[in-house]
Amino acid sequence: MLEIRGLRKVFGAGKVALDGVSFAVPAGQMFGFVGANGAGKTTTMRIVMGVLQADEGEVIWNGRPLTFAERRTFGYMPEERGLYQKMRVGEQIDYFGRLHGLDAGAVGKARDALIGRLGLTERVNDTVESLSLGNQQRVQLAVALIHDPELLILDEPFSGLDPIAVDVLAEVLHERARGGVPVIFSSHQLELVERLCDAVGIVSAGSMVASGTVDELRDAEGRRLRVVVREPKPGWADGLPGELSKDGDRDVLTVVGGDDQAVLRRAVEAGHVEFFGVERPTLVEIFREAVA
Ligand SMILES: Nc1ncnc2c1ncn2[C@@H]1O[C@H](COP(=O)(O)OP(=O)(O)OP(=O)(O)O)[C@@H](O)[C@H]1O
Question: What total number of domains does the chain contain?
Fold first, then answer.
């Protein structure tokens, strides 16, 4: 379990990048880290990886302050990426494996498995610079995974990828999570985060403004009722809580709270009810509300 406790980071002359960020990611959880540009995601990840030092707060790993040696067991995909453009794909992966202390036999085995799993077999002898963005990202993931990390921390691993590459990466991350590894990744692709993650943290201006499972966040936001009535009697929704809008000859009423059945009775009396249902907010809506 990774716990981030009260991280604060101020850059230069008073730029507060983090102002008390806290969250926890247990073993086997896929945690989506979301927030507007400049919210503090990369800074948080860099502190976890020891690239930056926090001014205040702690990073706790399995109940104790994270050590340098433990950090070496983590896999990291930095925002700035970190591949050697002139190196061949296979050599690159091997190089990072050796940096993590693996011997030649172990590196070879892990490299072959990853290359196959990530669909890079045809590209193993190509230089990194000759690869498409999507294939470079696959190599970057292979490099982060070569030492069978105990935690994965990935800064926007899905950015710029086509849907097939997204599926490959997502499946590989899910495999790791199923094996008990906490997986943390940042992304601006909220539909993707909603689809892939067990839990989500929304950071805004250096603070965590909402976190929990997607279900918990949806429940906290509250359910809403949507009613569509065709050719309704004018004024039928007067006095009902909610917002009424027009869509051609239909009225669309959105109600938060209130008595569902009373709304239904009114709608049935008013005209032809085409839709009546409780809807839960999407992560995009929750995000907009949380960072507003
Ligand atoms: N080295 C630095 N020096 C000064 N300010 C910095 C530095 N690194 C980050 N910042 C500032 O800290 C804030 C948080 O930046 P950070 O990169 O963590 O945000 P982010 O959530 O990852 O954004 P994005 O989604 O755009 O990648 C921003 O205002 C950024 O300009």
Answer: 2
